Amino acid sequence: MTYEEGILGIPKQFEYQPEIVNNEKIRPFQKIIILGMGGSRLAGDILNMYRPDLDIYVHSDYDLPILSLEALSSALIIANSYSGNTAEVISGAKMALEKSLNLAVVCAGGELLNLADQKQIPHVLLPHTDLPPRMMVGHDLMAITKILGLDANDFKACGAIDANNLKSVGTQTARQIGSAIPLIYTSERLNELGYVWKVILNETAKMPAFNNRFPEADHNEIAGFQGDWASGFHCIFLRDELSAHIGQRMDLTANLFREHDILVATVPLEGLSLIQQIINSIILAHWTALELAGTNNVDPMSVVEIENFKKQL
Question: With helix as H, strand as E and coil as C, how does the chain read?
Answer without folding.
Answer: CCHHHHHHCCHHHHHCCCCEECHHHCCCCCEEEEECCHHHHHHHHHHHHHCHHHCEEEECCCCCCCCCHHHHHCEEEEEEECCCCCHHHHHHHHHHHHCCCEEEEEECCHHHHHHHHHHCCCEEECCCCCCCHHHCHHHHHHHHHHHHCCCCHHHHHHHHCCHHHHHHHHHHHHHHHCCCEEEEEEECCCHHHHHHHHHHHHHHHCCCCEEEEECHHHHCHHHHCCHHHHCCEEEEEEECCCCHHHHHHHHHHHHHHHHCCCEEEEEECCCCCHHHHHHHHHHHHHHHHHHHHHHHCCCCCCCHHHHHHHHHC
